[in-house]
Amino acid sequence: MGITFRKETFRDDFTFRNSPEHIRRFPFPFHEDSYMYAVNIEPHVVGPKGSVLENLIDVDEHYVAEMQDRALVLAEDPLRCQSLPHMTLAGWDLLELLMEQQALGYPEHFTLTRDGDRWRWINRPLGIDDTFTFGDTSTLPYGPMEYITRQSQGDFCILDQRDGNLWMDAGMVTTQADWSLDFDIGMNFFEWHAPVPLAHEKGIFIRALKFLTNIQQGKPARRLNWTMTINPRLDTSPENYHKWGPDRSTVTPENVGDKVHLRVELQSFWRLPRSNGIVFPIRCYLIKMDELVTQPKWARRLHRVIRDLPEELATYKGLTRYRPTLVEWLSKLDDGSPTSPGFGPD
Amino acid sequence: MSTGTTKLDVVVSNVVPVNELVTRFHFRRRDGELLPTFSGGAHVVVEMRDGDRTRLNPYSLMGSPLDTREYTISVRRDDVGRGGSLFMHRSVKPGLEMVISYPVNLFSLDLRARKHLMLAGGIGITPFMAQTSQLAGSGGNFELHYTCRTASLGTYADVLQQRYDRRVRLYHDDLDERIELDRLLSSQPLGTHLYVCGPAGMINWVRDRAAALGWPAETVHFEHFAAPQPGAPFDVTLAVTGKTIRVGSQQSLLEAIEAAGVDPPYLCRGGVCGQCETNVVSHDGKFIHNDHWLSEEDHRSGCKIMPCVSRFEGKSLVLER
Amino acid sequence: MAAKSIISRPVYGTLSPQPGKHHLFVADAEGAVAIIEMAKNVPAGFFGGAEIVFIPGPDGKHVGALEALKPAQFHLAASFASLLPRLKQTLTNAHMGLRLYLSGTEGLIGQAMQVALEAGIDHTSMQTEHRGSLARRMQCVHCKGITENVTTQPATCAHCGLLLLVRDHYSRRLAAFQGVCINAEDRSEIPPMEEIFR
């Protein structure tokens, strides 16, 4: 049967919506009624059918529209996709990983055929059928990382591992939560996380780095992160902050349900076999408040989390301007009754 | 979560004597599928079931990373070691089913390098077999200097010279040929990275000269898996699990802990990766540290031990396991 | 320097002689003093394998004192731009064993480091010492233009004119601090401009 891909936009008229099935499968990130940083890393193994973890690389109803939005971003600003010269091999590793995983999870949409280093890749949703030589960049229209990440949902950071640290030396970043690849490329793990408040003092990044540098081939890991976005806008880059920043002043009690979106990142971490690098796919899921509160447990819990969030985190996540309006709106949906443990809706 | 690796069920597909000391072993997957891709410098841990004893030894993968139909390792026979290499030489025959770990790379190439300068001693040639294949396949700039005792013990020297011609330079101890190390290190273009694998003495010599000649530490890469050394038996108390164990003279502390049903994480079993680092609760006696992981300060403190390669002599030792 | 900073903000040290065959110094203005101080503690003959490239400040000070160290090569440059071709040539022909010492303004250290990184020297192996002005090089994250000698907070982008918050977040690759629009959410908010990077 396959996925029915939606025709929708993440800019201008913002026609993005989740179908009822996609609301149910939304990766709600709060397992309790409050939130603080933690090294919430777990093995990235296949989860229940019908969840975003059904396949390790998730493709959903927004696939085609997201890829069209990415193409628009890259046309405006090619610096969103960069790879330092020593990262080409890691780009091939990523191409292999994404082609294999997408073909495995969605055979009706993607097919990979290999004959030695002669590969054929069919991507039906985007109408692509390419034959190329694995390892030979001249046989693809783009470098290997750009080629495959123009066909894969989510941002991708490729990290080189050396001297006990991870270095962000390549990436495709068009749906980021307010950080700039062009600025951060070449930085190590601590440097690119430098602007994050509170977590350094808690030693969180030291522990996280130790874990990540030990990720083994065939044993990926994952964690969830979250923020909020006004309008279903994928490209909330610092590059365009002066264009989307004013949206934050447009939230009113009347439009909260339609404008305010919870933005969840499913981050996974994979060892790359040839380059010994690590790839860090950051898959972004958006849900508008009207959709989210169709699950009463999520409505109650989100109210409590946002209400009690420490000020530094609220500032870092850019919520300051509209937090009171949002909390007021959510409070009407919170009768104070307890929420069940765990992430899922009741 | 456990940081160990996934296991691979393999069958020995070929056993090839290379010279009087070294034998090469080929592994294929039992299910006939391709093995996982790996990067030059990676090793696998081979599980050797020898009667009621299990040894787990790391060996560098030496085949081309471009061909994953089989993995190959080369094992040098060590007549005075703890018996792992003797087991491989005597008991491992084609058709034997074995278990190996997924590949792990603790000696990877720095792909930023303008040039890769490789120094091998003896059986230390094996990771460079894979690394040179990888670099040659992608047009990488490398030069290999290989010291061996005699021409007949120059494992794969002929293959390497055939493949790479003047990019390989051989030095034979019996002909009194020596690397002119200072001259070699001083004539490398800026941006060169240095890799060394061989006996401990050679690694230390190269690292010392490189540092003295102004090579920054991050440009000098070395791999030396310490083999666990035999020694006097000793008793250990495991505080967390409440077990008391005896470490046999031919057994490593890690193996003894595992034999008692406690499984610390590990990747290299050679004192390099840091995974099995264990806190010492109390001790009365002397540590014999053989690892490359803990700092000298850690060694002096008596608070930590790497059970894969280090031992203990004395009255009592209590570990946090 | 700001009292509370972040990890990506560069930390500078004190120059100290490193083992090596050749020693290349790049300094501007008061950066000369860092070299002169270090020279008190070097092994005999150290400067016989050294090259000093110096951009004097407006006061023209320290030239004589540097020459007195008797480096194998001494070069006076009018600006960083003017020494760039020479620096690139030196690094292209250099061998392992060359050590790099950078001292002076943050802009000079950052730009020389940028060239050295491209030549294959790892940043952790370079010696740096900050002397003199705290004025910043800033990249506007929006238009990508670099504004030199930024002394105020916020600062105006010399290219696109946006009013930017000058962050402590620093990129070695760009040799610049990051500037982000300070009033993006409401352009009518104009915070006062203070001179803080001097």
From TrEMBL, chain A:
Q: Which InterPro entries match?
A: HODM_asu-like (IPR021848)
Please report a single Pfam family linked to this protein. HODM_asu-like
Name the UniProt record assigns to this protein: DUF3445 domain-containing protein
Q: Which organism is it from?
A: Mesorhizobium waimense
UniProtKB/TrEMBL annotation, chain B:
InterPro entries from the UniProt entry: 2Fe-2S_ferredoxin-like_sf (IPR036010), 2Fe-2S_ferredoxin-type (IPR001041), 2Fe2S_fd_BS (IPR006058), Beta-grasp_dom_sf (IPR012675), DmmA-like_N (IPR054582), FAD-bd_FR_type (IPR017927), FNR_nucleotide-bd (IPR039261), MRET (IPR050415)
Alphabetically list the UniProt keywords. Answer: 2Fe-2S, Flavoprotein, FMN, Iron, Iron-sulfur, Metal-binding, Oxidoreductase
Top-rank taxon of the source lineage equals Bacteria
Known CDD domains for this protein?
A: fer2, PDR_like
UniProt entry tagged with the keyword Metal-binding: yes
Q: Where is the FAD-binding FR-type domain?
A: 5-110
The keyword Ribosomal protein is assigned to this record: no
Domain 2Fe-2S ferredoxin-type: start-end pairs: 234-321
The entry's protein name is Oxidoreductase
UniProtKB/TrEMBL annotation, chain C:
The organism encoding this protein is Mesorhizobium waimense
Tell me the keywords, alphabetical order.
Answer: 2Fe-2S, Flavoprotein, Iron, Iron-sulfur, Metal-binding, Oxidoreductase
Q: Domain named Dimethylamine monooxygenase subunit DmmA-like N-terminal: which ranges?
A: 5-125
- In Pfam terms, one family for this protein is DmmA-like_N
Q: Please give the Gene Ontology molecular function terms for this protein.
A: 2 iron, 2 sulfur cluster binding; metal ion binding; oxidoreductase activity
| Residue span, Dimethylamine monooxygenase subunit DmmA-like C-terminal domain | 137-180
Q: What is this protein called?
A: Uncharacterized protein
